Amino acid sequence: MTLVVIGDYSVNLFTLFSILQLSLSIFIISILILAVHLSKKWSKSTLPGVGKISEERLPKISIILPTWNEEKVIEAKLEDVENQEYPNHLLDVIIIDSASSDSTIPIVRKWLSKKDFREGEKYRIIQEDSRRGKSYSINRAFDEADADSQILMMSDVDCRLAEGALLMIANRFSDESIGAVTGRQILLNIGQNRKASEEGSYRDFFSMMRIAESRFSSTPIFHGECSAYRRDAISDHKLVENSNADDSQMAVSVIRSGYRAIYDPEITFYEVAPPDGRASKIQKVRRAQGLIRHFWRNRDMIFHRRFGNFRKVMTLEFTLHIVLPIAMVLGFIAGFSHIGLLINEFGFQYKSVYSFPSIDKLMLFSDLLVILLLSSGILGIPLPGSRLSITFFNYMITLFKAQILILSGHSLHQWQQVSAVRDILAEFDKNS
Question: Which CATH number does the domain housing residue 179 bear?
Answer without folding.
Answer: 3.90.550.10
